[in-house]
Amino acid sequence: MPAAGMEILADSLNTDLLYAVIASVLSGMIFGFAGFGAGLIMSPLFAVIFNPTDAIAIVTMTSTTAVILLWPQIRRRVQVRESLPVALCGAATIPFGTYILLTTDVDLMRRSIGGMVLLFAVIMLLGWTYRGPRGSIAGGLTGMLSGLVAGSSATSGPIYSLYLLSAPVEAAVTRANILFVSAIFPISTIVSMAAQGAIGRQTLIRFALIMLPYASGIWVGARFFRAASDRLYRRAALWFIFAVGLVVLIV
Q1: 67, 179 in Cβ contact below 8 A?
Q2: Cβ-defined contacts of 194-203 (< 8 Å, 24+)
Q3: Is the separation of the CB atoms in 52 and 106 below 8 Å?
Q4: What does the alpha-carbon distance between residue 136 and residue 129 come to, in Å, rounded to a whole number?
Q5: Residues 181 and 91: beta-carbon distance below 8 Å
Q6: What DSSP designation does 127 have?
Q7: Distance CA 41, CA 166 (A)
Q8: Buried b vs exposed e over 33-44: b needs ≥16 C-beta within 10 Å?
Q9: Chain-centre distance of CA 55, in angstroms?
Q10: 35, 118, 185, 211: which could join 175 in a potential S-S bond, CB 3.0 to 4.6 Å?
Q11: How far, in Å, CA of 203 to CA of 142, rounded?
């Protein structure tokens, strides 16, 4: 490794990295169990530990790693017709979200997103379920909004997850649909950020240092999911969304 790279690596090995590793393990466990939510933990914490731009880049790259690890489970159960409109329309709007990230106050945006997520979680915990049309239009609109949020703050999971959670299918299929969308969004975000010069050498080194702890957390979370009932999965996912929305709003 060149001298400059060694210097960056040495600077990265500090207490902040330890905090980031702890956050990544916890986030991986949540993602491995629920199929979403990792960015909701890592994005705000990494923004404080590192900086907002690095935080979004690292969260996005770890999300890509997570989907690669879980791809065999996704492929067996995913409903392409249900999830593809969400994924494609989201990918189309992610570059606009990335532009917002690089030009707008990220903290203000995160608080706004926290309020929206909290509202959605309350509605569904009270028993409301989306019963409108579920075709390409509804999925596409969900994806467009999710893409804007993904590119700007990497916290779009609850938006498309709440839409997909309302489908009348078993938990394993819901989880696969959510993971399928989660596979497309990070790739599009990485491409968009790289094109706009937002991913540097230090970002890549930080990502490399937390990747293994994050993958370990995913493995543990996935093991817990196999023992969970449909009802437990849905309630746990919704309560998690509620808690994160509240924390992001007030912190």
Answers
A1: yes
A2: 195/95, 196/98, 196/99, 196/102, 198/53, 198/56, 198/57, 198/98, 198/101, 198/102, 199/57, 201/4, 201/5, 201/8, 202/8, 202/11, 202/12, 202/54, 203/54, 203/57, 203/58
A3: yes
A4: 19
A5: no
A6: T
A7: 23
A8: bbbbbbbbbbbb
A9: 12
A10: 35
A11: 30
175, 185 Cβ separation under 8 angstroms: no
Q: What tokens appear for 92 in the block?
A: 């189309």
C-beta pairs of 99-103 under 8 Å, 24+ apart in sequence? 99/151, 99/196, 100/148, 100/151, 100/152, 101/52, 101/53, 101/56, 101/151, 101/152, 101/153, 101/198, 102/53, 102/196, 102/198
The tally of domains found in the chain comes to 1
> Dihedral sign, CA of 56, 59, 65, 70?
negative
Q: How many residues does the chain have?
A: 251
Look up the domain containing 83 and give its range.
Answer: 3-250
Secondary structure letter of residue 126 according to DSSP: T
Ordered per-residue pLDDT tens for the chain, 251 residues: 555 555 555 455 567 888 888 888 888 887 777 666 677 778 777 877 887 788 888 888 887 776 777 788 788 888 888 899 999 999 999 999 888 888 877 677 667 766 776 776 777 677 666 676 778 899 999 999 999 988 887 777 778 887 888 887 887 888 888 888 888 888 888 888 888 888 888 888 888 888 888 888 888 887 776 665 656 666 776 787 677 677 767 76
A 10 A CB-CB count for 235 gives 13
Q: How many CB atoms lie within 10 A of CB 102?
A: 17
Residue 50 DSSP one-character state? S
Query: Model's pTM, two decimal places?
Result: 0.71
